[in-house]
Write a structure and sequence with these properties.
By secondary structure, this protein is of the alpha/beta class. The chain has a single domain, classed as 5'-nuclease (Rossmann fold, 3-Layer(aba) Sandwich). The chain is 48% helix and 14% strand. It is built from 7 helices and 5 strands; from the N terminus they run βααβααβαβαβα. Strands 3-2-1-4-5 form a 5-stranded parallel beta sheet. Helix 1 crosses helix 2. It is globular and about 40 Å long.
Length: 130
């Protein structure tokens, strides 16, 4: 399966290597095909620069050792063409996943769980591991 892992899960996996998010990322790497969009990569850099600047090298090391498919997030998104999501900041991830026909998004962001869609399936790290 093609699985997209959201920014918050990757951050947790980097900062807490023995956490459920880290185990979920590892399972994706071993058993599935990891897909990240350009928006997630940009967001990771932005968050680490703003909040975890002293850990920026951990992010770079993590990404350089991670095997993943990188897909492009459109810069212009017509909201009316996609499911409504409460937090519009999450729309680029959702749109990227829909365009790229992703099977599962793994996220801790509650706004994704309110979506009424059949694909991609939305899971938190614990549900994915179970």
């Amino acid at each position: 399966m093609r699985i997209m892992v959201d920014t918050n899960v990757i951050i947790s996996a980097i900062l807490f290597p023995k956490s459920l998010p880290a185990k979920a990322v590892e399972k994706v790497m071993v058993e599935h095909h990891l897909v990240l969009c350009s928006h997630i990569i940009d967001e990771l850099h932005r968050v680490f620069e703003e909040k975890f600047n002293n850990k920026l090298l951990h992010l770079e090391k993590f990404l350089s050792e991670l095997s993943f498919e990188l897909v492009y997030t459109p810069l212009k998104i017509e909201c009316k063409n996609y499911p409504e999501i409460r937090d519009k900041a999450d729309l680029p991830v959702l749109v990227s996943a829909i365009i790229e026909d992703i099977d599962i998004i793994i996220t801790g962001d509650k706004d994704f769980f309110d979506l009424n869609i059949t694909k991609p399936d939305i899971m938190n790290p614990r549900d994915f591991l179970d």
